[in-house]
Amino acid sequence: MNNEEIEAFFRDTAVNIYNNAELRDPQKEGYSAIRDHFNQREDSCYVQLPVGCGKTGLIGITPFGVAKGRVLIISPNLTIRENIRRELNISDPACFYKRRRVFDPSAGPFLSELRTGANIHDCDAAHIIVANIQQFAGANNKWFEALPADYFRMILVDEGHHNVADTWLRLFEYFTTARVVSYTATPMRSDGQVVSGARVYHFGYRRSMVQGYISPIDAVYVRPSEITFTAEGETKTLSISDVMKMREKDWFSRGVAMSEECNRSVVNASVRQLYEARQHGTPRQIIAVACSIRHAGQVAALYRSVGLKVDVLHSQMKDAARDRIEVALRNGSLDVVVQVNILGEGYDLPTLSVGAVFRPYRSLTPYIQFVGRILRLAAPNAPPYSQANQVYLVSHVGLNDERWWNDFTNFDKDDQDFFQEMLIDDEPEDGQPAPRLTLRPFMRVLRELVESYSKKGYLRKVDDAMVQDLFKAIREKGFEPGEFGLTEEIVRERLQASQEESQVLPFNPIIQPQARRDALRLRLPQEARSVAYTVLSRLKLEPNARDFARFSGGEHNSAFLVRLALDQQNKAMGLKSGARDSAHPDQLQKAIDESANIVDRLTALLREKLKDGSSEADR
Question: Which of 295, 453, 606, 616 has the least C-beta neighbours within 10 A?
Fold first, then answer.
């Protein structure tokens, strides 16, 4: 097919959009705004709407009456690409176009993917081509060589805040005749760059919650009345007012994040909210975010100790292990997943009802992206603002993430200057942490006294428009407000009450001794891996090299170091190899506490071996 034929298809196909009760308001309104924009001008534009509001569907209807030829839908990762392909695949009787009664897609739009094995013939046969941005990366890219500059006449960008990155800009500069539309929940990156193009439509979080497109959310904060910590050999005790001042310092918020005592408090609070969510439906699950892989293991052990089934996800895992955890999450056999910046954009699991924050965020964008993971509706057929869809974001006041919650509740402000003010340029997008050279914390919390949690609702102000939106949404779901005894006055009172800050009694789960021992036992191997990679970082050695082949029997550096670390753990516990199953919990904890010293000993030992090897080579 050529572009003239494709343009005719998108122009002449009769689609049911404006009067379609199956489409959501942001889909109809967003489509209208995009069409109006290109009726007047040709420059790029973007729409801003929260997760769960029908962004993929809006992408699917955008070309009709707007595209002048072939359409490229571009995503930042494979997860999002697959979501788009699945929703717009007209071979599936449950595809978006059929499910939402937009039209009968028997004659198109045909869709192809840019992936391994795809070629120009696949592209020529399609109205829409879906790709992740990596397909267009690299200096000598095969698609830039194969496709003429006027091949695509429309480019639709999912997660559009990426569109100012170099690879994306190269794409737009090559396909210069294409109309470009971006779709995003956050119109800026964490490096301070705002999404390219004119904003033509904005559907806010407040309206999304009230109309039942996304879940109502409360923030729950561990608010200790007293914290005792040690740093640089000094022990200090702070009141809550002192904590609120000290949390502005990065070293303090990082110390709170890494301290097991504070982690335990956040675990307890998040478990409390999980049990509360499960009173209104199951499965319900916790997604937690940690600072590092080692930290994720520490957090996971705390969840295991209270009897929950938990696993850790991070980018260094093999695909088979990731897939196993993904299946366990989706079938409800996991209670908790602790992740390190991996379940991000495009991840869709509505049963994630509690977000537990164990890291300090340095900018608003990644914070909102994490919040978005829990905003999808677990019970989509329930009335709007139902407790069946209530979700919770749990954190610790010492992490200083409360500022981002406050900014998040202001996120609907129609002011681009607001976005710039909220950015701090110290958390690079997709950045990698610097190699860790020590496992000895600068600060450690010894004790904290938690007498209550603080709970805050998202909606700060209840007005007539909000009440009317809620009534409209209830009726669209097939209910009448009167069925629930609701009047405008009652709804206003309930909404207002739900938004007032309140104090919640702390939760202290009963820990079974066996569960605690199992949690510590399962944590030890991850500690050994952390020790190994810290030593390798100190020695500036590659994990897959064989610098110690003479001593290790030819093992890779990483495998050799892990084996040495496990042996050191056994010595710390006073156990022989193979005797770990007999370890007492106190012995297991001792081995974990010894990690920093093990790093020091192994670094010294192996540095000497490297010197000896160099001396022998010189002789």
Answer: 616
Question: Token digits for 544?
Answer: 């897959």
Question: Are the beta carbons of 455 and 219 closer than 8 angstroms?
Answer: yes
What is the C-alpha separation between 595 and 607, in angstroms, rounded? Answer: 18
pLDDT of 161 over the 70 cut: no
pLDDT tens figures, 82-91: 999 999 999 9
Q: Provide the 3-class DSSP secondary structure of residue 218.
A: strand
Which residue carries 């707007």 as its tokens?
66
Query: Which pLDDT value is given to residue 315?
Result: 83
H-helix or E-strand containing 264? helix 260-278
56 phi and psi angles, rounded to 5 deg: -65, -40
Burial 419-451 (b: 16+ CB within 10 A, else e): beebbeeebeeeeeeeeeeebeeebbbeebebe
Is residue 17 included in any domain, yes or no? Answer: yes
Q: Give the separation between CA 600 and CA 145, rounded to whole angstroms.
A: 53
Q: Within the chain, what is the greatest distance between any pair of CA atoms? A: 93
In this prediction, residue 64 carries a pLDDT of 98
Residues 6+ apart with CB under 8 A from 284: 274, 277, 278, 351, 353, 354, 378
Is the same domain home to 236 and 381? Answer: yes
Residue 286 has pLDDT above 50, yes or no: yes
